[in-house]
Write a structure and sequence with these properties.
Blueprint (H helix, E strand, L loop, with lengths): L1 E10 L2 E11 L4 E5 L6 H8 L7 E6 L2 E3 L4 H6 L2 E4 L11 H5 L1 H7 L5 H15 L14 H13 L5 E5 L7 H16 L3 E5 L3 H7 L2 E6 L2 E8 L5 H9 L24 E9 L3 E9 L3 E5 L6 H8 L7 E5 L10 H6 L2 E5 L2 H5 L6 H13 L4 H19 L15 H14 L4 E5 L7 H16 L3 E5 L3 H7 L2 E6 L2 E6 L6 H10 L9
Parallel strand pairs: 3-8, 3-9, 6-7, 7-8, 13-17, 13-18, 15-16, 16-17
Antiparallel strand pairs: 1-2, 1-4, 4-5, 9-10, 11-12, 11-14, 18-19
Helix pairs in contact: 5-6, 13-14, 13-15, 14-15, 17-18
Bound molecules: adenosine-5'-triphosphate and magnesium ion.
GO molecular function: ATP binding; ATP hydrolysis activity
Pfam family, one: ABC_tran
InterPro entries: AAA+_ATPase, ABC_carbohydrate_import_ATPase, ABC_transporter-like_ATP-bd, ABC_transporter-like_CS, P-loop_NTPase
């Protein structure tokens, strides 16, 4: 049994934990929920020795624990999958799975032994990768699975998962949940932090809800809660502006000559085959598919990151897309990515600087002193609008909670007022309340005529925000869902089978 008692932690004036108790019992899955910035990750870091609390006690089976590092925690049988991925990009898969072991025993000694331990864990998670593949070549979802595998190979008694599924497709999430259930049956204690409330409620036994650094609901039985009640507890007296689903009544007629972002017979070897796609101004089009089906490649092509082998991309104003991400930005194309560590933010720079970053690349305004003052003011507006939890816009982005970092990515691109907005799992790690606000902002952008393309691993998100969802299978478009066909269940079914709903008009 792992117990935390009266844990406190402040960063300067920011109180992240104001006296938190948590008890996690063996053979149970304990959900730890709360809005962005509530203190979940800070508590997790204290439980695994990554953060030294200002006060409070940890106990394992009644014995007081003094953890000086996450390595200490692993030795005690406490393993963590952190929210921000922490793999070594230039090392291969196997070396990442056994980071500490390897440095202790030397790299060549027991690679074979390590591989023998790694294989079953990777298979269980459905992660089909070569053990000598450098991690930097893996897509975000595979890197996230690898983080989970790294915790599992230590054979923990307590496993702490901080938003482990934020980049995973439904199928991978299901597989992880099977693993979690098996661990529970073996008596492992699991702490599970997530904003996917329905998913987590399906797998957990107990729920603790945090709010503003405190426990709002301690260890309630999951059977006593619903998603609605959890949301109410998470947001407290803040009004829950939960998004109403778009009403998808009948297909919307689209004028074929209206300005649109067009992909014309785009082929990318091994990824896309002669794809034709037009996304008219003012529409939100979703891209769905299983990994490798081509939907993400479309986003990369439209962002100028991936060059087509044949075909071309034409912007709404008729100009062909320039190559390279900078070229695309200068043409008003923005990409909001859930992979924020790679594309999204400068962690060591203040919020205001991040928010102003794109504007200054695209427009080259100078007069830096004046600009900084104005950008601070603009940044303050975004902070208020998106509810970014921070003491000031001078705070470094790296000091924000994961979900609040993702909101900064949004602020940055909203500030640039793009005419084409490409969204790649845009709300990764964002809580329900802020999601609703972001969906509203996206609708505002489409009312002003922006083209929006959303790729998401969450079919519910696609159904909620898109006017149309284009489903990819094996590098081609296999269905376009609108109107009454546009719901999460149909999306999931079509992306897995490649077969459009039978009654769809051809
Ligand atoms: N290193 C740090 N320096 C300054 N403030 C920090 C630091 N780490 C966390 N905080 C602050 O502590 C508070 C709690 O953050 P924490 O990361 O625990 O939130 P969270 O519940 O995990 O949120 P999310 O759902 O967005 O991941 C936030 O206000 C955050 O800005
Ligand atoms: Mg967090």
């Amino acid at each position: 049994m792992l117990e935390a008692q009266d844990i406190r932690k402040a960063y300067g004036g920011v109180v992240a934990l104001a006296g938190v108790d948590l008890t996690v019992r063996p053979g149970t899955v304990h959900a730890l929920l709360g809005e962005n910035g509530a203190g979940k990750s800070t508590l997790v870091k204290v439980l695994v020795g990554a953060v030294d609390p200002d006060a409070g006690v940890l106990r394992l089976d009644g014995r007081e624990l003094r953890l000086r590092s996450t390595a200490d925690a692993v030795d005690e049988g406490v393993a963590v999958v952190s929210q921000e991925l922490s793999l070594f990009p230039d090392l291969d898969v196997l070396s990442n799975l056994f980071p500490m072991r390897e440095s202790r025993r030397g790299p060549l000694v027991d690679r074979r032994q390590m591989a023998e331990r790694a294989r079953p864990v990777l298979d269980e998670l459905g992660l089909a990768v070569a053990l000598d593949e450098p991690v930097e070549h893996l897509p975000l979802d595979q890197r996230q699975l690898l983080e989970i595998a790294r915790a599992l190979v230590t054979d923990p008694r307590v496993l702490i998962l901080d938003e482990p599924t934020s980049a995973l497709h439904a199928e991978a999430t299901d597989r992880l949940h099977d693993v979690v259930r098996r661990l529970r049956a073996r008596g492992v204690a699991v702490v599970y932090v997530s904003h996917h409330l329905e998913d987590v409620l399906a797998v957990c036994d107990e729920v603790t809800i945090m709010r503003d650094g405190r426990v709002a609901v301690p260890a309630a039985p999951a059977s006593s809660l619903t998603v609605d009640r959890i949301v109410a507890h998470m947001l407290g007296d803040k009004v829950a502006a939960i998004v109403e689903e778009r009403s998808h009544t009948g297909a919307v007629a689209v004028d074929p000559s209206a300005p649109a972002l067009r992909l014309e017979r785009v082929t990318v070897r091994g990824q896309l085959r002669e794809v034709d796609l037009a996304v008219p101004c003012g529409r939100v089009v979703g891209l769905a598919g299983v990994a490798g089906s081509g939907h993400r490649a479309v986003l990369s092509v439209a962002a100028g990151v991936l060059r087509p082998d044949a075909g071309r991309v034409v912007l709404p104003d008729g100009a062909p897309l320039k190559g390279g991400i900078r070229g695309a930005i200068s043409q008003g194309v923005a990409i909001v990515s859930g992979d924020r560590k790679r594309f999204g933010v400068m962690l060591d720079k203040p919020i205001w600087d991040n928010v102003g970053q794109v504007g200054s690349v695209a427009l080259r305004r100078d007069g830096s002193f004046v600009r900084a003052g104005r950008l601070r003011e603009r940044a303050r507006e975004h902070v208020a609008r998106l509810g970014i939890k921070t003491p000031s816009v001078d705070q470094e982005v790296g000091a924000l909670s994961g979900g609040n970092q993702q909101k900064v990515v949004f602020a940055k691109w909203l500030e640039a007022e793009p005419s084409v907005l490409l969204l790649d799992d845009p709300t990764r790690g964002i809580d329900v309340g802020a999601k609703a606000e972001i969906y509203n902002l996206l609708r505002g952008l489409s009312d002003r005529g922006a083209v929006q393309i959303v790729a998401s691993s969450d079919p519910r998100e696609l159904a909620a925000v898109c006017d149309e969802v284009v489903v990819f299978y094996d590098g081609r478009i296999c269905a376009r869902l609108t109107g009454r066909h546009l719901d999460a269940h149909t999306i999931l079914e079509v992306m897995n089978t490649g077969v459009p709903p039978a009654e769809l008009p051809a």
